[in-house]
Amino acid sequence: MTYVDVVKPKNFVLAFFYDIFLIISCSSLIAFSSRIFIPLPFTPVPITLQTFSVLITGALLGSKRGLLSVILFIISGIAGLPVFAKGSGFLYLLGPTGGYIFGFLIASFTTGFFSQIGWDRSFHKTFFSLFIGNILIYIPGLIWLGRFTGYNNVLKMGFFPFLIGDIIKIGIGTFVLPSGWIILKKERR
User: Fold this and answer.
1) CATH number of the domain that 22 lies in?
2) What is the pLDDT averaged over residues 151-176?
3) Separation of alpha carbons 55 and 93, rounded Å
4) Beta-carbon-side half-sphere exposure of residue 79 (alpha carbons within 13 Å)
5) Where in the sequence is the domain holding 118, given as residue range(s)?
6) What region, left, alpha or beta, does residue 80 occupy, with left being phi > 0 and alpha being psi -120 to 50 degrees?
7) Which ranges does the record mark as transmembrane (predicted)?
8) Is the terminal CB of the chain with fewer CB neighbours within 10 Å at N or C?
9) Phi-psi region for residue 62, left (φ > 0), alpha (ψ -120 to 50) or beta?
10) Model-level pTM greater than 0.85?
11) How many domains is the chain partitioned into structurally?
12) Which whole-number Å values give the CA distances from 53 to 34, 154, 169, in the listed order?
């Protein structure tokens, strides 16, 4: 059970529209977080809040809805909507940052799965869940980026510049998610 399952309507029709609303909302959050970016002159990878949005989307919605949110985000970008950091269209996914976007799929599903089994209720398990999700973004991201930058430069251009920001984002998520469950528990008494 995830956060959103706690307040999910019992009526099938309402529950269906509730899920659709959540998927569209979180897809929009991911898109919005990609449009606010800081370009770095030494790398084609910009600083964004996308990774945080993807991880939180999975954690809040669960594996299936989290994955569907990322799929909707990607389809929107392929269709030409300006949801990617520096462009849109199918060819954007074939560019230097396409591997990270592919990693969003794996990360949202995985963090969602961890939340469904209750890992978002304790601080250390939440940290582990978000950390693993972040690694699952980096693995395909760095492999794909290396095709453009050379594998000898890939960590310098696609990992190290983002490490401090990722630690901060994971730290925020690690604090917020279990704290939310503590508040929910108190409210339900």
Assistant:
1) 1.10.1760.20
2) 97
3) 20
4) 8
5) 3-187
6) left
7) 12-32, 38-60, 67-85, 91-114, 126-146, 158-184
8) C
9) left
10) yes
11) 1
12) 9, 24, 10
